[in-house]
Every structure is written in structure tokens, then in C-alpha cells.
Amino acid sequence: MVLRISDEKRVRTITLDRPDALNAFNEELYDAAADALLAAAADDSVAVVLLTGAGRAFSAGTDLLEMHARVSDPAFVPGKHGFVGFLDALADFGKPLVLAINGLGLGIGATMVGFADLVFMSTKARLKCPFTSLGVAPEAASSLLFPQLIGRQNAAWMLLSAEWISAEQALETGLAWRLCEPDDLLAEAHRHAEVLAARPISSLLAVKRTMTAPHRDAVREARERENACFAELMGGPANLEALTAFAEGREPDFTALPPGW
Question: Exposed site from 22, 39, 146, 210, fewest CB < 10 Å?
């Protein structure tokens, strides 16, 4: 199993459970996480979802070894939902979504913050959007949601630089709502989730719907723009160099790429 699920006081805790891979999303985990969100959305006994990670990472993003296979192996078989289906489940999730970011979050481990309603972070956690270091484009409507959430220049640095953002920076910019000591993180996030879960589910749904409805079309359009750019760049010279370097355990060298790349 790549997920653990537990229920307490109308809060469903979903724990990403590939600790040996730093909870990187392979097709199996994307499918399982999408199914878990869809099931929670349909379950009248669940008021709030709390999402966290097992081990020392929240999520290291998309599994790069599997990404390399996707672009290089004609026999690669995608999952039922995959990355796009997981994003659909996040974007359509109508109940409060609380993140407890227990460790490093890369790629989707960072960009899913844009879909969260409350974000708690360990003081030891950090976030990174590695898109330019992988030779690809942003994802998960982060090109829209991050400027809205943390301002244009903070978002520009995070999306363009592929540099780490500390927990303190996340709090200062608005990516995180609360910082907690590592041993206190899950309990504190769950305590706040329980406050929400004690309210009428119908009212929670109405509040979230009215907050997200004005942005739904813009989120869809941002994802379409990002997907088009991602498809154009994935498998290109910069992306192949990045993935090959990762597989070979070295830093990528983009200096020898063709002009324009």
C-alpha cells in the first residue's frame, strides 16, 4: 500500500506512504491519492481531509525515474488517474483540505499548497518548485495560484529559481498558515481540522464553494496553458538532460544545449 487512511472525529487523515522514495508520486500513488480524495468527497461521514506524509518527506514530487520511463519507454503504461486525475480531484474537492507538511515538498509536494485551505508546516520542512531545473513548465495552476497566494515576485522567485523555500519563508509569504515543531505538527493540524469538522458539512461545502467558484475557470485555463507548455518541453533537450543526469546521479549541464534551450 502507498497510502494510509484513518478517520477520527469526522477528519479523514490521508498519509502518503512511500517513505523510502520520499513519498514521490508514481502512477500508483497518483491513482491511490485521487481515489482517496474522491472517496472522501462522497463520504457523508467525512467533513475534513488532512493530508500528510510518512517519514522525513511530505512528497518529493513526481517520481523522476518513472518520468524518465514515460518519455523514453514506448511500452510505459500510465495509471487510471495519473497526475491529471489527481489534480482534478484536488481542484474539485469541495470539503476543507488541510495539509500537514512534515518534511521536504518538491514539485506537486509544493504546488498542491495552492489547492489547500489551511497549511501547517514543520519548522524543519522546506518547499521547492524544481521546474526550471528539470527543463519543464509549472504545474497544478501554480502559475496562477502562487501569485494570488504569495504575490507576483515571491511566486516568480519560487517558480523561476528552483531554489528551496524554508518553513520561515513559507510562513512569511503566506504559503503556510502555521509552523509547528516536528513532534507537534500532526496533532496541531488535526486539532484545527477537528474545529472545522465540528461544523455542519453543508455549511463547510457552501463556504468553500463560494470561495473557489470565482477562480474555477481561471484555474482550468491556467492548467491548460501549463499542460501545453509542459508537453512542448517534456522530452526536449533540457528535460532529457535533467532526467539523464538524475538517473546518472550527477548535476545537469544545460550549457551545451542547442540555442534557445
Answer: 210
Say which residue the cell 509547528 belongs to: 180
CA pair distance 261, 255, nearest whole angstrom: 9
Whole-number Å distance between alpha carbons of 186 and 184 = 6
Q: What is the distance between the alpha carbons of residues 189 and 102, in angstroms, rounded to a whole number? A: 11
The closest alpha carbon to 66, from 119, 18, 114, belongs to 18
Q: Whole-angstrom Cα distance, residue 225 to residue 100?
A: 29
Asked if residue 58 lies in contact with residue 76, where contact means CB atoms within 8 angstroms, the answer is no
How far is 257 from 241, CA to CA, in rounded Å?
Answer: 9
Structure-block grid coordinates of residue 181: 515543531
151: its cell numbers: 504575490
pLDDT tens-digit series, residues 211-254: 999 999 999 999 999 999 999 998 899 999 998 898 899 999 99
Reported pTM: 0.94
d(CA 234, CA 130): 14
Ramachandran quadrant class, 205 (left: phi over 0; alpha: psi -120 to 50; beta: rest) = alpha
Residues 6+ apart with CB under 8 A from 109: 23, 53, 57, 58, 59, 60, 61, 101, 127
- Give the chain's domains with CATH numbers: 3-203 (3.90.226.10)
C-alpha to C-alpha distance for 173 and 141, rounded to whole angstroms = 18
The CA-based angle 15-21-25, given to 5 degrees, is: 60
